Amino acid sequence: MNENPTGGLRRGEFGWFDAGRRARIGIPEAVFAAGKGDAALVEMIEFALEGEGPVLVTRLDPERWGLIADRADWLAFPPIAEGEPYVTLVARPLPRTGPKRVAILAAGSSDRVMALEARAVLTALGVDSHLVLDCGVSALKRTLVALDETSDAEVYIVLAGFEGALATVVAASVAQPVIGVPTSVGYGVARGGETAMASMLASCSQGLMVMGIDNGFGAACAALRIVGTRST
Amino acid sequence: MNENPTGGLRRGEFGWFDAGRRARIGIPEAVFAAGKGDAALVEMIEFALEGEGPVLVTRLDPERWGLIADRADWLAFPPIAEGEPYVTLVARPLPRTGPKRVAILAAGSSDRVMALEARAVLTALGVDSHLVLDCGVSALKRTLVALDETSDAEVYIVLAGFEGALATVVAASVAQPVIGVPTSVGYGVARGGETAMASMLASCSQGLMVMGIDNGFGAACAALRIVGTRST
Amino acid sequence: MNENPTGGLRRGEFGWFDAGRRARIGIPEAVFAAGKGDAALVEMIEFALEGEGPVLVTRLDPERWGLIADRADWLAFPPIAEGEPYVTLVARPLPRTGPKRVAILAAGSSDRVMALEARAVLTALGVDSHLVLDCGVSALKRTLVALDETSDAEVYIVLAGFEGALATVVAASVAQPVIGVPTSVGYGVARGGETAMASMLASCSQGLMVMGIDNGFGAACAALRIVGTRST
Amino acid sequence: MNENPTGGLRRGEFGWFDAGRRARIGIPEAVFAAGKGDAALVEMIEFALEGEGPVLVTRLDPERWGLIADRADWLAFPPIAEGEPYVTLVARPLPRTGPKRVAILAAGSSDRVMALEARAVLTALGVDSHLVLDCGVSALKRTLVALDETSDAEVYIVLAGFEGALATVVAASVAQPVIGVPTSVGYGVARGGETAMASMLASCSQGLMVMGIDNGFGAACAALRIVGTRST
Amino acid sequence: MNENPTGGLRRGEFGWFDAGRRARIGIPEAVFAAGKGDAALVEMIEFALEGEGPVLVTRLDPERWGLIADRADWLAFPPIAEGEPYVTLVARPLPRTGPKRVAILAAGSSDRVMALEARAVLTALGVDSHLVLDCGVSALKRTLVALDETSDAEVYIVLAGFEGALATVVAASVAQPVIGVPTSVGYGVARGGETAMASMLASCSQGLMVMGIDNGFGAACAALRIVGTRST
Amino acid sequence: MNENPTGGLRRGEFGWFDAGRRARIGIPEAVFAAGKGDAALVEMIEFALEGEGPVLVTRLDPERWGLIADRADWLAFPPIAEGEPYVTLVARPLPRTGPKRVAILAAGSSDRVMALEARAVLTALGVDSHLVLDCGVSALKRTLVALDETSDAEVYIVLAGFEGALATVVAASVAQPVIGVPTSVGYGVARGGETAMASMLASCSQGLMVMGIDNGFGAACAALRIVGTRST
Amino acid sequence: MNENPTGGLRRGEFGWFDAGRRARIGIPEAVFAAGKGDAALVEMIEFALEGEGPVLVTRLDPERWGLIADRADWLAFPPIAEGEPYVTLVARPLPRTGPKRVAILAAGSSDRVMALEARAVLTALGVDSHLVLDCGVSALKRTLVALDETSDAEVYIVLAGFEGALATVVAASVAQPVIGVPTSVGYGVARGGETAMASMLASCSQGLMVMGIDNGFGAACAALRIVGTRST
Amino acid sequence: MNENPTGGLRRGEFGWFDAGRRARIGIPEAVFAAGKGDAALVEMIEFALEGEGPVLVTRLDPERWGLIADRADWLAFPPIAEGEPYVTLVARPLPRTGPKRVAILAAGSSDRVMALEARAVLTALGVDSHLVLDCGVSALKRTLVALDETSDAEVYIVLAGFEGALATVVAASVAQPVIGVPTSVGYGVARGGETAMASMLASCSQGLMVMGIDNGFGAACAALRIVGTRST
How far is G56 from chain D (nearest CA, A)? Predict the structure, then answer.
């Protein structure tokens, strides 16, 4: 292993860690655990912990928790004990910067793990969030209550599977930036999130922005770009 | 040309007219003009006019109006003069059966021609309808006004292009049967109506029924089955 | 946990229960079990049982039966013992309102679990149904017998996988409302139900209404809207 | 232009004519007009006329008729005067071999031009056909009449757009080989014939064979392989 | 359980057996095992064995062999011991009618189970077949040897995954009917057989007929229709 | 025509104008010209001009310019004289609020009309923009020059057709919010913008937000939500 | 207009010309005419002619020929007079470097315009090519003759529409690099080239490389990279 | 088992081994293990080892290693012990022919197994390769370092999942042939590699060649065709 002379890159046997990313775009490189073997995962996490600032591990199968539990003082979203499909880990989070700046609205309770991925990333960067689960439009009252509770947010992240209509209704109702995250929740014609994604991209609401399916991580990064991470 | 002995079928050079259809399913066979040559179109219309009861011609290019204008006392939806992509013609409509029984809500003003196709079919069978154009969810207030104005309808037909969220919101708000008609209105990721159709089929609202893209005709037939055409 | 002041909403840790839904659209919110963790599932079922009227749990993995077996006097469709992919549970069904009002025709014997999901929902709301399995058009005689046995139904629900032609033939033969449910039965070009769904949506039969793939639940809700649940 | 020594190939400036094809597979190479410039079209037709036996020109825009009208004694399907989207031309057809050996059933009257393409190819090879237009399943009686009239056919060609159910019903009813031809007739979710094609390929009827969309030519070639062209 | 008066239908708890199918289309109804529970499977097999003539069970998971092993004197394709994804069973096959009448060519050795499904069905109806595995066009010599060995066949069944080019080459080389069966063999852009299927449907070879993905059963039924099962 | 009592809605013969939208989400309702007949277009523009503040007309076919030229003092993007596929019109723009706040980067020169649609909307709301055309990654130097020239922007809008890689490279290089707009520029596998859209949604760059195909209008609305229109 | 200091870039009103591209990748930037207005097209061609070496204009509508005919001594592929859908222009071609180095095989005569686009690009860079039209596998003899005539080529470019099998057969037969170009020739299930493209990408032939649909230009660039343009 | 007289083909019970392939196209037939039963796999490996020259086994599930471990002196990519999804085996590799001739760049560390498949094939044929993992464009510096380290390669193989932009950037930067391999790495809208594949095929970089998803094997074969295997 050697330090790359061009700066900010740590190079190992299985890959490189882009240590300069937070300086460049305001958000550190996250270690994406899903596709990595054990050795590659450990190497990357070590690289990430070598520097300063927050550390993020995404899409970790809870069964691999033992491999890295002792390497840092991790926060887990959701908690490891719950046996979720994957968890997001945060170490060395930045201090909270103030009141709840990002609203996270999820249409169903099954969108929870993606919503928590977004919350984890925001937490790592010191941005507080307000999470409301299960406020989809099949009961419009829930949607209105959720909007009312989050009206002072700077940015909205809206997660929805099935037909994804919650994102359209939120973007039609508020003036803040709205980031839609289609989720793979649903069956049959929900097509693993494709239907919600197309629905959000074709929305008649003006200015709804869309992320890839289940990409709670990306939505949080987008929100961080908007609330301004460089100045924190 | 000869009468088929099995009853109810009139057979010509270009096809057969199913004169028994109204007795069987409550709705007469409509003459679908779009794919027919002039001779075939005239033959079918003559067959349709031979019998009794209402006559329907759908998807007629207004430029072909001269071919059939004099054959009956037609009602046109929309009026021929407007140069629409296609018109629906009605002859010998049944008498009105009473107050407005079917509500037709269209998300945008561009869904008008499909909405009028539905209204034409209902008119032919003597069922009155209440049409509200341009009440999509990008301004939820419009939607609520439209629902309020139509609350005594027996059935809802909801037309929407783009992401088709109006159908989901209507079905979440009323107890009547709701028939969604995805339309080809929109561009890009609207995919000619595929996005709205998938969105309606995957809707989180309980019991929303869906027709094919731009199928205002089918929606009206479905509504007629529901309000009961046999007893009229 | 607290009662939301806007009425009809019960809010918990994992989501909200829309207790006002039956008053609004005639059908109670069903607890969709498939995507929920144990705690979330129990919370929602408790909310559902708190009120009055019928309770529905859909898409329950039979292996989770022990978690909720004792909480109510459940009817299971199909019976729990059969090890089906999922079951639908009903508690506190409304009393039967009369003769068989909804016909459920399934093209193959493999469409059974979706057909039973529809029957469960109808049973919960006190609507009797007449189920005929395996009456697809590859033996037209079966279809004709099934139509004959159900000719006094008020609504038809037709389930079919593969090419879905049964729905087209039924809608061409009866005057009642017909609701098609494409199923994921089949392999290869059946494409998990997409082929049957497209086939039903493009049907040449006038007024066939379509639900999403495997959505027996939605079909029953649609049928309930048609037979009129508010007056029961 | 020169004769290729390997036999059966005539080579020109724009392509080669496979003069040995009829000896090899029983059916001559047809000149596919749609994608060719005038010079290339004339060259290929001249090559085709150089040899003996039947000559076929497919997908000819009627506006190009003048270019080749005088080169042979052509039969046109449909007649040139009708201004159809394309016509199929036959010259030097083989003599008729006997009674109607191939039944051609078309679901709608708009499938006519593809049906005539099939009939033209059969005519060229001396095989008689029985064409029934507009016998789709939305009026099952028509279908039954058509099946009755053609019960002595050796092979069935069935053309259908929309949901293509006619092919499934025919294959469920007869013992002869059935060749389905999905057509591009329909709009919206008919998807230019893709829906009918998938429906036929996924058919629950045993042994239904399928051609590409609008491929009446191929269907006739398949039928000719079945009735045996080598021995004629 | 009761005998249906309309003839040829045996009706049970889980479905109907179409005992009249062989008289109608020349091929008996096969018991499709894949989607059936144990009780439904046994019921259908008992119905099938009640009558006379050949019995077919398709898509049987070898792990369920014990359930039905003793009910008849079964031939298994492939043999049960090999642990294949599924097997096809034949009981009471008709006597062989003569020399090898159907050629079955499979592009790769992995297409074997679908090829054997076709062979099983042919065997049941007394039609002999000539199976050549692994003769795809990546080594054209193999293809030519296979064609040479099977030149006296009456019909060709060609199975291929990946790009499916073998079907095109066979249909370009022989005069007999050619039935293409796209298989799900391959990965990535093979798209579970969709690529081979589209390739066969769009083939430049004249008259290639196509079945659904992995549908060896249907291909054999089609071949039986061609070689004429009624007269056996 | 009448004023709706619920406030902010102007209702006409062909639709409603949501006059309250700017107060609600910071951006006025734009008149989408593409799907409207002449009478409907004029009615909506009159409604829009009745109030105060900026007025937007999008997707206007330049051939319809005469219909509305005299109704206001319009700015056209691009200028009417250029015969573009469509133009965006602005009337009564808000005063400029300061230096260039939004960077608009377009990969090719053919993305110009969509880029100008975005610029028009920003201009209407008083937000200055910096447009760089033709800076795609096939010449990375151009991309770097463009990034250097726009480094003080608050938000990036990136338009690209073909494979859409420019959006990924920009989002990897800057800390500001980046909004990707896939365009329909390209042919064949560009699939009318679907490829660029999928590419942006699946981007490995953290936090890239995506709009629908060719939706320059939506991108500008999103940028306005981010730079904060309520306070202007 | 000004010269960009970073070298190799010429910047105009409508875009930039990457004058350094030939030094970087061996092939000059081609002016893609299809999406450009007249002013933009002229500006780019002037930039291209300012430097030295070969100049390429692709996808030019022949109707725009007058706009640029006099600006250079152009070679047109195909000749302007033939009224093709588009032409490729070459000015200042490099001198021929020797015998025919690239074989261009096209399955049908309708693939000609894409084949000539490839030949034009090769000509511009001084690389001779051997073009054989209409040698698809529906007559395998033609294919074998074409392979025989081109056996000394260094690289093969193979164009094919429909099912694209020619590319598979060529790659199975030769040791040289083979570049497949799926074309949009065909109808129905040819899906505008998608079927041929998928077929080539899934080919069982080892090492077949694929370009986008109709991308004769790209194929020639790929061939040039292989034969080595830097050393010429 | 017998030797086929037409030369180069070894024929067994389960298939044929094309022993003449290396003489024909420069690369031996590889034994594709994924779809084969144990007996078929062993038969093919024995055939392959019977001759001379390098032997390749691809897509071997590591759990089947015991079946063939003793049959040759295998090199495994990656090593068997790592429990990868599949391994590529090489026996009797040709001697190395010189310095690193093929650069293999992989965008992420999860593309490793496909990259090693390519390296295995190159190793078998005596061609050295330079592998750089994890050099995707989300940190452009890594890409530039990788390009710098491999600037003397004769050919580039570029593997990337997600949006696949690395292939576009490499092809825009170097003059050598560039072969893109889209990988199935990613989730949601990455669509199992379809997005990266479309992105590479639509690339604005001139002359990028593309393989099927995850086809590292094919990419190596293509590279071998380019660097010339016949002369080694």
Answer: 25
Residue of B nearest to D108 (CA): B15
d(CA G199, CA G164): 6
Quote the percentage of chain F above a pLDDT of 90. Answer: 86
Residue C2 has pLDDT above 80, yes or no: no
d(CA H171, CA F163): 13
E174 vs F178: CA distance, rounded Å: 59
pLDDT of residue D35: 84
Q: How many residues does chain A have?
A: 232
Q: How far is CA F228 from CA A176, B19, F27, F218, F221, in A?
A: 8, 64, 10, 15, 10
Q: Is there contact between D and C if contact means ≥3 C-beta pairs under 8 Å?
A: yes
For residue A64, count CB atoms less than 10 angstroms from its CB and return exposed for 0-12, middle for 13-18, buried for 19 or more.
middle
Q: Does the pLDDT value for residue A122 go beyond 60? A: yes
Chains H and C touch (3+ CB pairs under 8 A): no
Q: How many CB pairs under 8 A join D and G?
A: 62
Q: How far is CA D119 from the centre of its chain?
A: 6
Dihedral of the alpha carbons of F123, F126, F132, F136, in degrees to the nearest 10: -80
Q: Where are the alpha helices (DSSP H) in chain C?
A: 21-25, 38-50, 65-68, 112-124, 140-149, 165-173, 194-201, 216-227
Taking alpha carbons only, the member of F149, A30, G201 closest to residue H214 is G201
Residue E105 in contact with partner chain D when CB distance is under 8 A? no
Q: What is the pLDDT of residue B60?
A: 96
Cβ–Cβ contact G201 with F under 8 A: no
- Candidates G112, G145, G188; nearest CB to D6: G145
Q: What is the mean pLDDT of residues B204-232?
A: 90
- The residue of chain H with its CA nearest to that of F196 is H199
Mean residue pLDDT of chain F comes to 93
Tell whether A2 lies on the interface with H, counting CB pairs under 8 A: no
What is the residue extent of each domain of chain C?
2-91, 101-227
Q: Which residues 3-42 of chain A have a CB within 8 Å of chain H?
A: 4, 6-9, 14-16, 18, 20-21, 29, 32, 34-37, 40
Distance from CA of A219 to the nearest CA of C (A): 22
CATH of domain H101-227: 3.40.50.1970
The CA distance from F33 to B108, in Å, is 12
HEC sequence for C37-93: CHHHHHHHHHHHHHCCCCEEEEEECHHHHHHHHHHCCCEEECCHHHCCCCEEEEECC
G140 sits in the region (left: phi over 0; alpha: psi -120 to 50; else beta) called alpha
For residues G24-49, give the mean pLDDT: 94
Shortest CA gap F167–chain G (Å): 18
Confidence (pLDDT) at C83: 64
- Nearest chain A residue to H137 by CA distance is A18
E contacts of D154 (beta carbons < 8 Å): none
Burial class (CB in 10 A: 0-12, 13-18, 19+), G75: middle
Chain E contact set for G191 (CB, 8 A): 198, 202
Q: Which of C82-86, C161-165, E87-91, F113-117 has the lowest mean pLDDT?
A: C82-86
Question: Mind telling me how many Å the CA of A113 is from chain F's nearest CA?
Answer: 18
Cβ of residue A203 closer than 8 Å to a chain B Cβ: yes
ipTM of the complex: 0.94
Q: From chain E, pick out residues whose CB is under 8 angstroms from the CB of D209.
A: 179, 209-211, 222
Burial class (CB in 10 A: 0-12, 13-18, 19+), G128: middle
d(CA B27, CA C65): 47
Cβ–Cβ contact H175 with F under 8 A: no
| pLDDT bracket for residue E187 (50, 70, 90) | very high
Mean pLDDT of chain D: 93
